[in-house]
Amino acid sequence: MRFDGLLSFPLTPFTVDRADVAWAVLRDHLAAQLAAEPGAVFVACGTGELTALSPTEYERVVATAVEVAGGRVPVYAGVGGGPQVARENLALARRAGADGALLLPPYLVESTPAGLVEHVRWVAAGGGLPVVVYQRANAVLDPAAAVALLDVDEVVGIKDGRGDVDAMLRIVTAVRHSGHRRADRFAFLNGLPTAELSAAAYAAIGVPGYSSAVLTFVPDVATAFHAALRAGDEATTGALLASFYLPFAALRAQAPGYAVSLVKAGARLSGQPVGGVRPPLTDPPPEHEERLAAIVESARTALAEVRRG
After folding, report:
1. Is residue 96 part of a domain?
2. Global pTM?
3. What are phi and psi of 182, to 5 degrees?
4. Range of the structural domain that residue 118 is part of
5. What are the mean pLDDT values of the chain's consecutive 10-residue runs (309 residues total)?
6. Which CATH number covers residue 35?
């Protein structure tokens, strides 16, 4: 499995009172994401507030994404929680027509890398969908565990959200040189918040694909950065890092949960009526939204200047 291009992680829009999903807005949001031609759509994941959705909402969100995508790109659905809940999520995602699943870390429980492999096996084996394992927080693999995942045929890749480039290099090298029949086809993805900041470093160790939350609210900036990175256009990548990505990451660090709620605020600023986040996440105060708007304006000014030469 190879994921080419930017990877889209859509938001889940809610009504004003957050009591329901804003279904028409979701369809529009998904259509806008697809217009940016991502390599795949990962719906109801972290940015899509998986843990805030009821099972009924979850299945309909996934089904909506599958319908809107219309087979143009793969649709992966987030699954998570404890092993049994994650397996039930997987069954719902399959019933909704998803092409695969992103397995988020198990709820709260810490274990060994070998224990994590067994958790993945419990959820994925026989589930009928390709699964990408999300390594972050309490879900930490080592090279031996990563190689062991090759024996779970449903597991097609690892998405890294830890940011330890040295550790990820060891995992990539162990898998690629394992001699396993699936070693060359196994996918590795950069899943750090604001992954653009680490995209060059990850590409250098054989992890070129990355998720982009920025794509949900400033697709022009996200796609321009991605194209420049692939072309080796350091003038554009440097200008966007300085004007947008570094200031955005600094603002994102101001409060826990901003990796989701600040992105959703950005979508609202762009004219998408996606509503607020569900608790325990909190929406940014007006002063942070104003700062975000200024950062977006600065990015577009910098991009225009670079294009003018």
Report:
1. yes
2. 0.96
3. -105, 5
4. 7-218
5. 84 98 98 96 98 98 98 97 96 98 93 97 97 96 98 98 97 98 97 96 96 97 97 97 98 97 98 98 98 98 94
6. 3.20.20.70
